[in-house]
Amino acid sequence: MTQLQTTHPEPAFGDDVVLLTVPADGGYLGVLRTATAGLAARLHFALDEIEDLRIAVDEACAMLLAIATRGAELECRFAVTDDALTVEVTVSTVRGARLPSESSFAWKVLTALTTSASAEATGRHATIRLLTRRTEL
């Protein structure tokens, strides 16, 4: 079980929350990348921040696809606040599934491209959370 401890603010009343579910298949990751880019653009993220977040979401999903059960779905929850976008992706996992360790290259990518990244694998589900705050201009 891999768990990175990071506190993510829960969306407050009035925050926008978007839920998107797609088959746990690499062919559908473009849908999640596009949704990520659209929501980040809505927050007026810089183009390089949007691209970093798209790459981070892609990497997080790739980690989850590697441990997903056959026929699983990726459940993606986007929480939009005034200055941040939190992306939480969950999938049902095979028995004994483990996420990459905190020292893995995949986690280095996630933490370099986002403000914070965390994960948890409990029972038959794994979740990766990415928080990206807009840099001030």
How would the blueprint of this fold be written?
Blueprint: E1 16-23, H1 29-42, H2 47-65, E2 73-80, E3 84-92, H3 105-113, E4 116-122, E5 125-133
Helix pairs in contact: 1-2, 2-3
The total number of structural domains is 1
User: By CATH's scheme, which homologous superfamily applies?
Assistant: Histidine kinase-like ATPase, C-terminal domain
Radius of gyration: 14 Å
What is the second-level CATH architecture? 2-Layer Sandwich
- The first-to-last residue Cα distance is 39 Å
Protein name: Serine/threonine-protein kinase RsbW
InterPro entries: HATPase_C_sf (IPR036890), HATPase_dom (IPR003594)
GO molecular function: protein serine/threonine kinase activity
Domain Histidine kinase/HSP90-like ATPase: 23-90
Tell me briefly what this model is.
The chain is 31% helix and 30% strand. By secondary structure, the chain is α+β, with helices and mostly antiparallel strands.
